[in-house]
Design brief:
Blueprint (H helix, E strand, L loop, with lengths): L20 H8 L3 E5 L2 E4 L1 H20 L3 E2 L5 E3 H6 L2 H4 L6 E3 L5 E4 L4 H11 L8 E10 L14 E11 L2 H21 L4 E5 L10 E7 L5 E6 L5 E3 L19 E4 L6 H8 L7 E8 L3 E7 L6 H8 L4 E3 L2 H6 L16 E5 L8 E4 L5 E6 L1 H4 L4 E3 L17 E16 L1 H5 L3 E3 L5 E3 L1 E8 H11 L1 E2 L2 E2 L10 E5 L5 H16 L4 E3 L6 H11 L3 E5 L1 H6 L1 E6 L5 E5 L3 H9 L3
Parallel strand pairs: 3-7, 15-17, 17-20, 27-28, 27-29
Antiparallel strand pairs: 1-2, 4-6, 5-6, 7-8, 8-24, 9-10, 10-21, 11-12, 11-21, 13-19, 14-15, 14-16, 18-19, 21-24, 22-23, 25-26, 29-30, 30-31
Helix pairs in contact: 1-12, 2-6, 2-12
This protein binds adenosine-5'-triphosphate and magnesium ion.
């Protein structure tokens, strides 16, 4: 590719709308352009990278027995009604009607379609296991599309679905994908960590997320440095903490004028937040919920939702809190009626605790959960924190931020039961197929790769996904000998499979070097007077900065060898 021809309109300035590095650099390197919030055009450089990522994914999926197909983006509402997801999916689903007024959506995911495909044609256990996948645009009308390609409303995903005859066979398929995902991200040059994404109620963990560790990551993850436990914070299991040994005292009220937050009450009463009950009021689609955690803890809303089996969990308004007979800042579980109370395990072990009195400017002292109020449910509903004991080995856990690039999930028979996708087993008995689903965000992987590989000058592509391997920069395009030699190198390298850009533009070398660093080609080859006078080519690694002076005798092999080391 000649740079004079390459459509990669680079920008000098960082666009103001871009908050994270990958978004800034993709705009500056002329890789993407925005069409609407969360919807982008992939310009030639980005498209080349995406195709390389896709091919790595294809090879690894095929190696495990996956077969590629392509499903429709436009999906009929009926299938989604059958699984009950037409209503559940909510505003995240892009919906449309055809000319006859029938409902359709743009596929946010493809369980409904693929299960219908398998249902139609799979009859016998002999046709299983089956692994089908596609690489295609997905549509999700995210509340907050942001960070460029990180959270788009239209994005590219690889989604594979496995169909098996039983739980053990599903586990085999799952482990194949677990292994393949590790390979995909390693081959893309990413440092990635699988984390547990679910507590694994049924026979071991049923879901893992693959996280690229990066400061800008939207997901918080927790990991143990002693054992290999790692989990998404939302999903991390927690052991109840030690109970205080103390005789329970008599319940009493205390005036706390305008003292509302945990920190304020703690300071005012000189009591540790660890001895306080934090009460958070929520409105669900069914009822009003009080979630109780210890004063020094935070509520894990994902767990509360799962425990209560509700779809909506929003903080209750001031009015709602009034309606149930309480006041923001002074709310507590004692004496409140018409609310569902869910308490964290650790709260139920408190003795002589402090909580709001449901009266303006008052708190209660010596609250003893089992004596003073009744809860609908006691469960693990708090967020894990740095230094909490590891649920596996008890050592203090650490926190990090991650970008979720992949997600694997045991669906079991959720969709096959809903859509009656059955097969006949060895004994001629009809059974629902046991399914798994496995996604990789292709466009998000490209963005995540930049978050892990950049410096102040621009992107540093890992070789396997770099748009081109090398760029040739002639010092003077007026110098015929230089240009002739640069042309020769360009031809020879491309012929040898080293994808090379020839920067033949009528620009100063400084401009070309800046663009080369910004776009992030792994190798930069300078063709100047040295080549002509001494027969030596200068090659520089974008990542390490190492410069090699390569003799022109066998430069193709030498550059090829250098490329393996950068
Ligand atoms: P998130 O929690 O980030 O919203 P998700 O749980 O909704 O992700 P899945 O439905 O499991 O994601 O989708 C599989 C993969 O698709 C994710 O691991 C991620 O890499 C990618 N992905 C999901 N949503 C988006 C998006 N809005 N933009 C880009 N990639 C996405
Ligand atoms: Mg999502």
């Amino acid at each position: 590719m000649r740079a004079s021809h390459l459509y990669a309109p680079t920008l000098r300035e960082t666009p103001a709308e871009a908050e994270v590095v990958s978004h800034q650099l993709m705009l500056r390197a002329g890789m993407i352009r925005k069409a609407a919030g969360g919807i982008y055009t992939y310009l030639p450089l980005a498209w080349k990278i995406l195709k390389k990522i896709e091919n790595i994914i294809r090879e690894e999926m095929d190696a495990k027995g996956g077969q590629e197909l392509l499903m429709p983006i436009v999906q009929p509402a009926e299938l989604w009604t059958e699984t009950g997801r037409w209503d559940v999916y909510g505003d995240e689903m892009f919906r449309l009607k055809d000319r006859h007024g029938r409902d359709f959506c743009l596929g946010p995911t493809h369980e409904e379609i693929i299960t219908t495909v398998a249902k139609t044609d799979v009859r016998s256990y002999r046709q299983l296991p089956l692994m089908l996948y596609q690489i295609q645009n997905k549509y999700r009308d995210e509340i907050r599309p942001r960070f460029g390609l990180m959270r788009g409303r239209e994005f590219i995903m690889k989604d594979l679905y496995s169909f098996d005859r039983n739980e053990e066979a599903l586990h085999d398929s799952y482990m194949k994908m677990y292994d393949a995902y590790g390979k995909v991200f390693e081959r893309c040059g990413l440092i990635c960590r699988p984390v547990e994404a679910d507590s694994g109620a049924i026979g071991g963990s049923g879901s893992h997320e693959f996280m690229v560790i990066a400061e800008s990551g939207e997901a918080a993850i927790v990991y143990c440095s002693e054992c290999d436990y790692a989990a998404n914070v939302e999903k991390a299991e927690l052991l109840p903490l030690e109970a205080v040994e103390e005789a329970s005292k008599q319940l009493s009220a205390v005036n706390t004028p305008a003292v509302k937050t945990i920190a304020e009450v703690s300071a005012y009463l000189n009591i540790d937040p660890e001895r306080m009950i934090k009460t958070v009021a929520y409105q669900t689609e069914k009822d009003i919920v009080l979630a109780l955690v210890r004063g020094d803890h935070e509520v894990n809303e994902v767990k509360v939702k799962n425990e209560l089996n509700c779809l909506v969990l929003e903080l209750a308004s001031e009015q709602t809190v009034k309606d149930i007979g309480s006041y923001i800042g002074f709310i507590g579980p004692v004496g409140l009626k018409n609310v569902t109370i869910i308490a964290d395990n650790t709260v139920m072990r408190l003795v002589n605790a402090v909580c709001g009195a449901n009266k303006q400017d008052q708190h209660l002292l010596n609250v003893n959960p089992n004596r003073d109020f009744t809860v609908a449910k006691t469960a693990d509903i708090r967020l894990i924190q740095e230094n909490d004991p590891c649920p596996r080995c008890g050592q203090a856990v650490k926190m990090a931020r991650g970008i979720e690039v992949g997600h694997i999930f045991k669906l079991r028979t959720k969709y096959s039961t809903a859509l009656a996708a059955t097969f006949l087993d060895e004994n001629g008995k009809e059974k629902p197929m046991v399914m798994g689903c496995y996604g990789i965000g292709v466009t998000r992987t490209m963005a995540a790769s930049i978050e892990q590989n950049y410096d102040k000058d621009g992107i540093i592509w890992p070789v396997p996904i770099a748009p081109y391997h090398a760029v040739i920069v002639p010092i003077s395009i007026k110098d015929e000998a230089q240009m002739k030699f640069a042309e020769e190198v360009y031809q020879a390298l491309n012929k040898a499979g080293i994808e090379t850009v020839f920067d033949d533009r009528n620009e100063r070398p400084g401009v070309k070097f800046k663009d080369a660093d910004l776009i992030g080609y792994p190798l930069k080859i300078t063709v100047g007077p040295k080549v002509v006078n001494e027969g030596v080519i200068e090659v520089k690694s974008r990542r390490t900065g190492e410069v090699r002076h390569i003799n022109i005798e066998n430069y193709v092999e030498e550059i090829g060898a250098f490329l393996k080391k950068v």
